[in-house]
């Protein structure tokens, strides 16, 4: 091999690496736009079955079917925001009036009882409680300082969400109106040799992801039902809305349910200001945790296996390992995108590396 060919090869490799790094930099700088595009694609995949239903069943023109679908989606988003803001404001007021010293005293009593039961001397217990007990002014000031800043942060986030919501709805409309826009964009950079395989992959990906996100909505509805019933029976104010908000956190695998449980416990506590903590609030918290546990058991052993096996054709253990690995590598965002990303990867591998034994085993159901 001539030295000029080697030099050209090195230059091409360097150019490819530099181009890839430049692409990553551009994506990083434009991450908001990239996020809007990804969310819009997800919204379009969720709305796709509705558009198809309107077009094929009711013979509605494509543009009208897309407009009706987007109108429903926009109304849902607007309704959620309009319901959540008053809820946060109301609960913030309750939290502001809540005496956190009551909780501190109850935990001190519980700590003393447990310590005496396990044989710790009274003096040691009293010293530990005295060291652990927060200053009353600091404890009461916790709610008064934390709540206004928390509500202010929430309102700022909602303001940013408003801008993002408009962008997502606008982009989603055109994704639904012209469903081939993404496919054409991808095919422009694909060699003619792989054109047919790419088209088959895109069609399969679109179908599987659409089924996955619809199944995910059904999963969230099941959890919402359990949460709502639990909170209503316990007597928490705005139970349906709180259940809906907490069910949405289950979009984050494994971590989301814990966040939702903490939020439900907080709302249960702040919904009952001025009542005895040990005889009224604590039992209610226990009932809420019991309802959450039952809901999660049904979700983990019934809902998720059926949804994953039927929508993305993957085994629950396979999905668990993928989510765990994505979480370790990319954090919460990786956990949320693990299943759709893994599904896309499986479809591509099946089309382009179908003879590999490992790929054949993983993609047998596709």
UniProtKB/TrEMBL annotation:
- Membrane topology, record value: Multi-pass membrane protein
Keywords recorded for this protein, A-Z: Cell membrane, Membrane, Transmembrane, Transmembrane helix, Transport
Q: Which family does it belong to?
A: Belongs to the autoinducer-2 exporter (AI-2E) (TC 2.A.86) family.
Q: Where in the cell is it found?
A: Cell membrane
InterPro entries per UniProt: AI-2E-like
Gene Ontology cellular component? Answer: plasma membrane
Q: Which residues cross the membrane?
A: 9-27, 33-51, 63-88, 154-176, 209-234, 240-269, 281-299, 319-345
Q: Note one Pfam family from the annotation.
A: AI-2E_transport
What does UniProt list as this organism's lineage?
A: Bacteria, Pseudomonadati, Bacteroidota, Flavobacteriia, Flavobacteriales
Entry protein name: AI-2E family transporter
| Organism listed in the record | Zobellia amurskyensis
